[in-house]
Amino acid sequence: QVQLQESGPGLVKPSETLSLTCTVSGGSITESYWSWIRQPPGKGLEWIGYISTGGNTNYHPSLKGRATISVDKSKNQFSLEMSSVTAADTAIYFCAGQLLLRGVPQYFLHWGPGTLVTVSS
Amino acid sequence: EVVLTQSPATLSVSPGERATLSCRASQTVSISLAWFQHKPGQAPRLLIYGASTRATGIPARFSGSGSGTDFTLTISSLQSEDSAFYYCQQYNKWPPYTFGQGTKLEIK
What we know:
heterodimer; A: 121 residues; 7-stranded mixed beta sheet; 4-stranded antiparallel beta sheet; B: 108 residues; mainly beta; globular
């Protein structure tokens, strides 16, 4: 059974870079696409981006280049960096894995429990 | 971007009764729609994919229907543990993948 766990600082200062890591257990990180999704307080879920089995990335257009997702296959982990954060980036951040169907990513099959990141000075 | 609109925002239903949740897409997503259950502090749980296929381990009282732009999640014979937020998500037209704003289901 695949399990995901997010880790990283819970508090980030405005204008700095948010960094989170997701550890995948019970499965290989080379067998899926891996996404970051966030939920601001009192709001809905927003997909941030994914990294593919081949290391290709795709991001939400609204993030305007602030997000970078990378993978460390040796540790079965993938990471998110988001630069120039503001209070609007305060959210619960989830990592998730997508089912692949004939190499095309589908729905989010596996999720971590999420981690709260607060942007404040 | 495909906008998903869920209704109602909050639903209060008695145990043993049926809950019907709606998700409407701003453009067709075929049957590429999933439903998730989320209890705060826990990982979201996949309930339905392909609009109507139950995920592994999901009880038969959860059912999904619809195609194109209109979708429904029905939970029959409600139990107390069904109290949660429910989200729909489309994976037909991306990026970005999009979610509905959620329905909060309360068990009276």
